[in-house]
Amino acid sequence: MAVGVFAYGVAFGLLAQEARLSLAEAMTMSALIYSSTAQLATVSALGASASTATLAIALAVLLLNARYLLYSAAFRPWLGTLPAYQTYPMLFFMGDGSWVLSMQAYAKGERDGGFPFGASIAMFFPWLLGTLAGVVAAGLVANPALLGLDFMLVAFSAAMGLSMFKLQRSWSGVIAAAATALLVDRFAPGGWTIVAAGLVGGLVAYVRFKPPAPTATTP
């Protein structure tokens, strides 16, 4: 999985260079934000007008990273008993891949808090190295846009979403988000497309969600 993270970092580095970010700016973003989806959305929105780009970027990053609230909550039964100085650094380095690996390990009986930390670190450094390689290699590619690397954001998000579909009614949120994205893209392309689609899709999913009925228990 770390190999894929490295390749994703290369893609971000190329797109960051295309968006005229310096090597220091791209590396700082990868180290402090450490969110492939949010970072790709950010560099995509940099082409918008200055008056709207900042707000669109802030909202896009907030929405795309909101999933980590659920990720960290899922870790509560595992890491809730550990001291803060051990838990919080691990949560900072947590990514989508390391969360999936950790939850799979937990389901199999793993209870060592070092597992999610190790899985996260194992993907953090390939992400930084990939960013570095992408920025450096950008000088060798005349026009990175021709490679279509910005589609990795769409492909990655689609793969994550499909892996989470467990109920047929999940499609209502997807359809609502897709329709919203197509509509907004006609009038305000860039970061606002992601913001609007995330808000509408999440709202529809919330309205449609119904928790399973409690099962009867014998006293």
Q: How is this structure best described in words?
A:
With 219 residues, the protein is mainly α. The chain has two domains: 2-164, no CATH class; 166-210. Helices cover 74% and strands 0% of the residues. It has helices spanning 2-18, 23-32, 36-45, 50-65, 67-74, 76-79, 84-93, 96-107, 114-137, 151-164, 170-187, 191-208. The longest helix is centred in the middle third of the chain and has 24 residues, at 114-137. It is globular. The N and C termini lie far apart (46 Å). 30% of the residues are buried.
Please tag this protein with its features:
single chain; 219 residues; mainly alpha; 2 domains; 0% strand; globular
Topology diagram in text:
Elements: H1 2-18, H2 23-32, H3 36-45, H4 50-65, H5 67-74, H6 76-79, H7 84-93, H8 96-107, H9 114-137, H10 151-164, H11 170-187, H12 191-208
- Major sheet description: none
Average pLDDT, to the nearest integer?
A: 81
Helix/strand structural class: mainly alpha
Distance between the first and last residues' Cα: 46 Å
Summarize the structure.
The longest helix is centred in the middle third of the chain and has 24 residues, at 114-137.
